[in-house]
Amino acid sequence: MPTNGEIADAFTLLGDLLELDGAVRHRVLAYRRGAARVRSAPGSVAEMALAGRATDLPDIGATLQAKIVELAQTGSIAALEKARERTPEGLVRLARLEGLGPKRAMAVWTALGVTDIEGLRAAVEAGRLGEVPGMGPATVAQVTAQLADPAAGEAGAERVSLGLALPQAEDLARELRAVPGVRRVEVAGSLRRGRETVHDADIVVAADDPAAVAAALEASPLVAMSAGGGDQRRAVMTHPGLRIEVAVAPPERFGNLLQHATGSARHNVRLRELALRRGLSMSEHGLTAGDGTVTVHADEAEVYAALGLAWIPPELREDRDELAVAAEGRVPRLVERADILGEIHVHSDWSDGRVDMATMAAAARDRGYRYIGIADHSQSLAMTRGLTPDRVKRQWEAIDALNAQIEGITVLKCTEVDILADGRLDFDDDLLAGFDLVVASLHSGLRATGAEGTARVLAAVEHPHVDAIGHPRGRMMGRRDGLQLDIEAIAERAAATGTLLEINGQPRRLDLDSDLARTALAAGARLLLSSDAHGPEDLWFLDLALRVARRAGAGPEDIANTRPPADWRA
Ligand SMILES: [Zn+2]
Ligand SMILES: [Zn+2]
Asked: pTM of the entire structure?
């Protein structure tokens, strides 16, 4: 009987091969959704399919059930074998590389006869990748960089969202803090630097007895399996499949370990060069002088101080200009959680939110907010029960009644109005004028390439009633990259018109990302942080948006949420 994992792998491969072969989008997605559903099903899906009951599962229709039965009875799926004959399986790994994707992977095959990742490596070394039509020097460089990783393009090398990885790492960190003898525990690595996606997670622990930490990891209900290592450094796999590496040091050199494990690799290379110029060699074990004496540091700031630097926030450690800035003591004050007074983009059960407005408002107040803007969807998004103008007016009355009753927080009348295909908005100006604040978002046409995405966003930026652009790029991790925006042009107009650009904190969005947000700030735009919460348990997504903003180098003055909305126009 095939396991759920084997069925899911077969469907994933079939979806990937069909995509390479240029199959219609919904067929590809049907196999991918089916794969995800089978993988997460609690019981044997093969047994269900043989009993004709796999179709009880969402995303599993008669076609997919028939293929599961076929796999169970014959050990293979004819459609998959046919797809394998048409398209070399090795191209799947090529298609996963950033900058390539299915179309360019096929072009590489056609132009160079390359059918797998080894062939691609050889073609790159021979300098032939640039011969492929449509392959510019930037893409060649991007692909070449990824090939340095032996696991390039492997499914296991897939990155997961900060929003999925961070809670898992923090849960394990919390458990380890409770272990007797443990003094300090921090999440390190790319999670601490706030990268939007990560390969794996790092946790560093200050403890005198590493064996006790190892034993706690063995016994942890969060850990699915040990992935190797000794007491000082041990890797584990969580149940959802995140690899977490846990390193232990005695408390007196916890600062050295935390600094080392936070990275980035390139930041640490620059630091080691700086240390060498001072006659010091630097590692997670401390700073070693020429005569062999080792200095260790309990706190991370001491490590930087020993090199003549101010402490650098982890989000800025990417080998940009942070060492020069820290040497001059000019490290910027980044926006912090305590600066945030509220937000204006959450949903209620008036559209597709899960709870009523009073519950959302109370949850926002519990987070210490002074205001919360309920921004439900507009009429065109029927799927989300988008509001008609009539219902908008009834919602306003309900908000007035709520404000008369609730204490400690102000509820604002907001909307997430749809930007239609032609750039117009989904409500007329009279209605828009009645809202406290208007967030305008794109929810369709997000696979468009070229300039039309920028034009639609620009039209909304210029609209006199629009206060902010929601999730500007429209990306959805694992599903679509979203629009290719001319972010500089958008940010310049946003700055001129006083329109805020959102960093949407939903784990699969994180949109704008930190690179785009950095560019937007440089062009003079200001940012809005949003959880886009659809229930109280989503409000913490704002913390993810905050990390993205910090990675973009944003200070409190760059973020609208650090001020009451009454100040925004000024
Ligand atoms: Zn939206
Ligand atoms: Zn929304």
From this structure: 0.76
